[in-house]
Amino acid sequence: MFGSLKKLFGGEEKDGKVIAAPVSGKAVPMSQVNDPTFSQEILGKGTAIIPSEGRIVAPADGQVTMVFDTKHALSIQTDNGAELIIHIGLDTVQLKGQYFEAHVQAGDKVKKGDLLLDFDMDKIKAAGYDVITPVIVCNTPQFPKIECISGMDVKAGETAIIKL
């Protein structure tokens, strides 16, 4: 009974087929991202988060496959098979790394909850950029029953936002 309740209220499933929020904030559907690449799910299905803090953590166990030079995005191959992109903000590549600090590099093994990146949300917003953070499963076709969860407050490294 408690296992069912835990699943219902955002607990992790025993088979590990969930992706947690990489940042705390409000989860919203990808359709609310003001960029067609994300809102039309061109790169894959996912959930976006309007962050409440500037700290990105690993959403699942896996390996960092890429950290963009501009540190505004990174990709992870999770142990459960998902190929993820975490993209902080819209057009933030234009900041050329300013206001971002990476704590990992390509090849690093990570555990769910490990710190990946910090970003100065206030300075990014003051520079005129939206900080909404899409979390995309790039290999969506491998997960025919993928479920993207939104419409709630989420806690980094804890709240499930994608069920594979």
From TrEMBL:
Keywords: Kinase, Phosphotransferase system, Sugar transport, Transferase, Transport. It comes from the Bacteria. Pfam families: PTS_EIIA_1. It is found in: Cytoplasm. Its main location: cytoplasm. Residues 35-139 form the PTS EIIA type-1 domain. SUPFAM superfamilies: Duplicated hybrid motif (SSF51261). PANTHER family: PTS SYSTEM GLUCOSE-SPECIFIC EIIA COMPONENT (PTHR45008:SF1). This is PTS glucose transporter subunit IIA. It comes from Enterocloster hominis (ex Hitch et al. 2024).
